[in-house]
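Support request from a user on the community tier.

User writes: "When I paste my structure tokens into the form, the page sometimes reloads and wipes my input. The last time it worked, I copied everything first. Here is what I submitted, just in case something in the input itself triggers the reload:"
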């Protein structure tokens, strides 16, 4: 079985008195009843790149905003069958990192990213663990929510190396 390693980000921003999470709606995916699918930005780790770098890059590419690393939240592991090419089963590991908003405008993404991302949006962090489509990503949002409940300014968490 082939293996893939990806990384993604849970980017948080404090505005209007509460925390928000940057999510994406991938192109070509819909839930039953044609409801939108909300996901976290993520992608394959490029050669020579470390997972934290990938998380920052993917968040910027897919949402238009940049963030600073706060800490690693955890890993998600699963098996999927490719829907393209060889249809092979793949064991995938996705490392997720907590990021804090630094700059940029949500949705300001390159034209070529529009092939992957229908739109980027802010979800209230308190609701994100219920609104994200994938179980592992909901767990990562719940961890981020727990972090801000412990430390509303995220100052006590060390940046990953």
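"...and here is what came back when it finally went through:"
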């Amino acid at each position: 079985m082939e293996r893939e390693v990806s990384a993604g980000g849970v980017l948080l921003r404090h505005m209007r008195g509460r925390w928000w999470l940057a999510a994406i709606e991938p192109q070509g995916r819909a839930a039953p009843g044609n409801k939108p699918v909300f996901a976290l930005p993520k992608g394959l780790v490029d050669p020579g790149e470390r997972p934290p770098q990938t998380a920052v890059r993917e968040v910027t590419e897919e949402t238009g905003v940049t963030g600073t690393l706060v800490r690693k939240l955890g890993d998600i592991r699963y098996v999927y069958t490719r829907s393209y090419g060889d249809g092979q089963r793949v064991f995938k590991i996705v490392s997720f990192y907590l990021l804090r908003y630094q700059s940029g405008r949500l949705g300001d993404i390159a034209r070529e990213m529009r092939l992957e991302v229908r739109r980027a949006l802010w979800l209230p962090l308190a609701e994100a663990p219920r609104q994200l489509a994938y179980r592992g990503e909901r767990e990562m949002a719940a961890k981020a929510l727990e972090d801000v409940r412990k430390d509303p300014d995220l100052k006590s968490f060390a940046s990953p190396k």
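Agent notes: The reload is a front-end session timeout and is unrelated to the input. Helices lie at 51-63, 128-131, 135-150. The first helix runs from residue 51 to 63. Escalated to web team.
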